Amino acid sequence: MPSQKIIIDTDPGQDDAIAILLALASEEVDLLGIVTVAGNVPLELTSRNALMLCELAKKPETKVFAGCSRPLVRPLITAEHVHGKTGLDGADLPEPRISLQTQHGVDWTIETLLAAEDNSVTICCLAPLTNVGMAIVKAPEILPKIKNIVLMGGGFFEGGNITPTSEFNIYVDPHAANTVMKCGRPLVIMPLDVTHKALMQRKWLDALRALKTPVGKATYGMLSFYERFDVEKYGSSGGPLHDPTVIAYLLKPELFEGRQVNVEVEINSELTMGMTSVDWWKVTDRAPNATYMNQINADGFFALILDRLSHL
Ligand code: BDR
Ligand code: CA
């Protein structure tokens, strides 16, 4: 199978980290570059974290670009309460030796897409959609180049995780999310409705540690730290691993089920800001713009991650 060209837009974050490592470990994807954005922690830290992950995976040739340092309209909200001060607390990684590329991440995304064939690049969004929204506004001629946009964000049946109605990635930059939802290219959405059905289990975390590799040690450490927040919050036996669903979908789409529906983002009401309005029951005549997933084969998902990470 020829590899799929992808760009990862991210704010690492422990769950972003697993998504990045999964992509770096997988031959089916050709990672053109990683673009960072402010989200879980400020941009300087998300960029540093992305560099450290490329080193951890022994892929120092991976290009990492820093994108936007704040959302398009609203002030930045971060999530140190979930991810710790560095965004990757628990991992204990050394300072990166590789450096960021000098070009701005949005400009690189535009340049890369313009140089690509039509319908050829998948954008994997693991974070607030600021960079992608900005690129679409700055250079709408990139749109035909995009094969699809696969994003982790939103929630409908599950409600929100940062406000009662809204999921973090959409809430942090609802205006950018609104631009992406309306961009007209195929969208695949991995919402909380999916990620809350795939909870990490102790046995799986122990299997990561048992790899006895730097990747196994670091991922065990960071995920043990990261899951404490959700376990306490939801009273569940393990925490969700949101962002790797995006990469897992590219590798094994059969792990997921969903529906072709209309999804729009609330950008006017302060009470429900960033809410994803999902027309699951087709009660409007708004045209479907996304494949909205709501089922996951959790065992298959965790087995895939463990298998691929064991090769790094
Ligand atoms: C999303 O928000 C971030 O905290 C995670 O990295 C994930 O992208 C989950 O709501
Ligand atoms: Ca993320």
List the helices and strands and how they pair.
Blueprint lengths: L3 E7 L3 H11 L4 E8 L6 H14 L7 E3 L13 H4 L21 H11 L5 E5 L4 H9 L7 E7 L15 H5 L1 H8 L5 E4 L1 H4 L6 H8 L4 H21 L9 H8 L4 E6 L1 E3 L10 E3 L11 E7 L1 H12 L3
The structure holds beta-D-ribofuranose and calcium ion.
H/E series, N to C? EHEHEHHEHEHHEHHHHEEEEH
CATH architecture name:
Alpha-Beta Complex
- State Rg: 18 Å
Number of domains: 1
The proportion of strand residues reads 15-25%
Strand order of the largest sheet: 3-2-1-4-5-6-10-7
The CATH top-level class label = Alpha Beta
Q: Low-confidence parts, pLDDT < 50 over ≥5 residues?
A: none
- Helical region count? 12
Summarize the biggest pleated sheet: 8 strands, mixed
User: Structural class from helices and strands?
Assistant: alpha/beta
Mean pLDDT: 95
Number of strands: 10
Which features characterize this protein?
alpha/beta, 8-stranded mixed sheet, Inosine-uridine Nucleoside N-ribohydrolase, Chain A, 10 strands, globular, binds beta-D-ribofuranose, binds calcium ion, 12 helices, 312 residues, two-stranded antiparallel ribbon
